[in-house]
Amino acid sequence: MSGHSHWATTKRDKATEDAKKSMAFTKVSRLLTVAAKQGGGDPDSNPSLRLAIEKAKEARMPKENIQKAIDKGLGRLDSGSYEEITYEGFGPEGVAFMVKVLTDNRNRTASEMRNIFTRYDGSLGGVGSTAYIFSPDPKNPSFYAEILNPKTKDRLEQMLSEFDDNDDVQEVFYNFKLVNN
After folding, report:
1. What is the rounded distance in angstroms from the CA atom of residue 12 to the CA atom of residue 20?
2. What domain range is 105 assigned to?
3. pLDDT per residue over 119-163, tens digit each?
4. 29-69, pLDDT tens digit by residue?
5. Predicted TM-score of the model (pTM)
6. Which terminus of the chain is more exposed, N or C, with fewer CB under 10 A?
7. What pairing do the DSSP bridges indicate for beta strands 145-147 and 176-178?
8. How many CB atoms lie within 10 A of CB 165?
9. Strands annotated E in 9-155
10. What are phi and psi of 39, to 5 degrees?
11. What does the alpha-carbon distance between residue 25 and residue 91 come to, in Å, rounded to a whole number?
């Protein structure tokens, strides 16, 4: 027996799970708010709201929280203003990225995105610098870069992890495939 408290381990695990759940709820809540603001509060006539509600249910978000986020988007509750921004840039070995963000502070988010790209030897591009690669469907880029170098694979995986850890980031699109040697 190591002498450690079983409760300490349980508390630490629960804190980790709660933090992940909170981050997921924050992302989905912002998505719901923007969808309701742009297309109204009826999911039958607003497909983006319907999709956001499905994502909220997948994240096991309570109905009260879903309704509260929709009400914020409709202006029934006082809330900050979120805007959707797309950042484009290049990572290691010229890999193209397109990052969709929902933010209430565009300056802070631009700084964070620039920092992530710079940290991994990439650069934040201008509007349209990578969009042509992802048109018309960002999930199916027109070409893929095949990454063979193990160091580059690790850096790209770390970069994607940082994007996922950022509360403002909603989706990340990229044009690379990791190939095993």
Report:
1. 13
2. 83-178
3. 998 999 998 898 888 877 777 777 677 777 788 888 888 998 898
4. 888 988 888 888 889 999 989 999 999 999 999 999 999 98
5. 0.66
6. N
7. parallel
8. 10
9. 83-90, 96-103, 123-125, 145-147
10. -125, 5
11. 28
